[in-house]
Each structure stands twice: as C-alpha cells, then as structure tokens.
Amino acid sequence: MPLHLTKVAYGCDSIEYLQDRLALKAAHQPAFLTTRYMPKRHEEVAGGSLFWIIKHQLIGRSPILGFGEAEGGRVAIYLEPKLVLVQARPKRAHQGWRYLEGKDAPTDLGEAGAGIAELPPGLVGELAGLGLI
Questions:
Q1: Which of the two residues, 51 and 85, has the higher pLDDT score?
Q2: pLDDT tens column, 89-124
Q3: Positive or negative, the Cα torsion across 123, 100, 34, 79?
Q4: Pair 12, 18: CB distance under 8 Å
Q5: DSSP assignment of 52-63, as one string?
Q6: Mean per-residue pLDDT, 68-82
Q7: C-alpha 41: how far from its chain's center?
Q8: What's the half-sphere exposure (Cβ side, CA atoms, 13 Å) at 18?
Q9: Core-most of 19, 77, 78, 91, by most CB within 10 Å?
Q10: Other C-beta atoms lying within 10 Å of the C-beta of residue 113
Q11: Predicted structure pTM score
C-alpha cells in the first residue's frame, strides 16, 4: 500500500473552492505546492495521494505525480489537478504535511459523492460526523 500525505487546504473554505484552485494552477503550469524539505519517505509516497483537510475534515485527495525542485531551494510536490472526494473523516489541523498510511486512508466516494461538493461545508462535516457520508 502506498504512503500518503495530509495537508490543510489553507485559505479554502469549501470543496468547490479547492477544486477551482487546483484547476487554476493546472491551467498555467503543472499543479504543485511547495515545501521546505523533501519528505524523508518520498519514495514510499510515489503512487500515493495528498489528502486535503478543510474545516477539520479529510475531504478529498489529489494523486501525487512526483517531486522536484522549486524556487528558492524549496521542494515541489507535483499533483494531478483533480480532487477525488473521499469519505469525510475528522482530522485535526496541522502545519505542513503529515504522513498517512494506506491502511488508514479514507475510501473514495466515487459516484456516490457526485453532489457533495454543492453542500455547505458545515453540513458535510455534520453528515460525516454522523457517519452518513
């Protein structure tokens, strides 16, 4: 099982906004985010995903394409510019990224999650807390 990363979607208050942000980044260049240090376990992360946290919930993931160099000696984490919705799960916010073992990763919603992006984030959190999504 691949290893994954988790990261707070800083400045994003909804799933729709995160989707728009990923699409905008991909329109001008490959979608990526930067970090100061290369993850020590970056080889294990190959084939994994970056799981996004919005309002203390893991809500979706973007497949990781690879790692590279960015401006100022930083490291770029290249992402597929799509957001795959997952079964929402409570997750405390943190700075930077954290590892997530494959066995602990939430499952994709697939077709069942088609309308969730239109719901208010607070409602998504409530439904996830009740185990309904």
A1: 51
A2: 888 888 888 999 999 999 888 655 556 656 775 676
A3: negative
A4: yes
A5: EEETTEEEEEEE
A6: 91
A7: 18
A8: 26
A9: 77
A10: 18
A11: 0.81
